[in-house]
Description:
This protein has helices spanning about 5-15, 100-115, 130-165, 180, 220-235, 255-260, 300-305, 310-315, and strands spanning about 20, 25, 30-35, 40, 50-55, 60-65, 80-90, 195-200, 210, 215, 240, 250-255, 265-280, 290-295. By secondary structure, the protein is an alpha+beta fold. Among the domains are: about 10-65, no CATH class; about 80-90 and about 180-315, Nucleoside Triphosphate Pyrophosphohydrolase (Alpha-Beta Complex). Strand 2 (about 25) and strand 3 form a beta hairpin. Its main location: mitochondrion.
Amino acid sequence: MAPRTPAALGRALSSASCSCTQPTRSVTGTSLEADSVSGHFSDNPASAPPLITLRVGTARLQSTAAAASPAGSSAPPSQRVVAAALLSRPPLLLPALSPFERSYYAYQRRIHRALSKPAESATSWFFKRGSAAEKAFTSFDQRVGKEEQKGDMVERRAYEMAGEEVEGAPELMHRETEADRVGDEHSLERRADRTLYLLLKKKRDQHAWQFPQGGVEGQESLVQAAQRELHEETGPNVDVWPVGRVPAGAYEYAFPAEHVKKFPAHAGATVFFMPMRVIRGQAVPSQKEGIVDFAWLTKEEVQKRVSPDYWQAIEPMLSDQ
C-alpha cells in the first residue's frame, strides 16, 4: 500500500461530512440542555473557511431542588453572652514550708556550718602550736566574734524597744488570724498565705454559689459588663483592678426547657470569666439582685460550694497557692 501524500489525505478528509446532536443529559436534581453541535468539512480545498467548523450552543441549567425557606420562618435560638468577675485577693504571706523544704534547708545549713568551720590544723601552717603568735591570733578572732554577737544583740534589743515605744512600728503578722480562729469567711484577713476568691450565694436550690456574673448589655465590653455586675451585686464599696481584657476561661451551659419555652431567644449561655484583683473595700450583698450571702474562699473551699460542672470549668483558672 503506497503511502498517502498530504494532498491525498486532505482530499479524503474533505470528502467526509459529520453532523451530530448532543442529547439532553440528566443530573441528580438538575436538567442540562445543550444545542446541537455540528461540524462541516469543506469539499473545496481552496475555500476560505477552515477545515472544521464547530458551533456549540449555550447550555442551560435548570434546578429542580427545593426552594429556600420562607422569610417568615423563625431563626434558631442563640447563646447568651455572660461576663463573670473572677475577683481574687492575693496571698499576704509567703506559703509555709513543706516538710521536704524544711529538711532541705536544714541540710543546707548543716553543710554551710561544716564548710565554714575552720579546721584545727589550719593555724599550724602559719604558727607553731602553743606559741605566743598563735594565741594572739586566736584571741583576736574570739574577741571580734564576741563583739559582733554583742552588737547584734544590742541592735535587736533596740528594735524591740522601738516597737514598744513608737506607735505604728512594724510587727510580725501571725499566720493564724482572728478570722481563722472564729471561722469568719467574710473577712479578707483569713488564710493570709492563700489566694481567696469572692463567691456569691443566690436564693435558689441549684447552682446557688457562683461568681458575680450577668449578661452583656448594648455595646459593653466583657470587662465593663463584669464590673457593672460586680457593683450591682456587691455594692459600690469594692474597688477592683482588672488584670486584663482577655477572659481567663469560659463555661457554656444550656437553659432548662421551661426557661427556653418562656424566653425562646436563647437556648443557653456562655460565661466568660474576667480576672480581677481586689484593692480595698468589702462586699455588701444586694437583696435586690437576690444575693443572700458571700464568702472569700480558697480553691478547695470553692470546690465544695459549686456544682460539679461549674467546678470542672473554673478549676484550671484558680490558684493552688
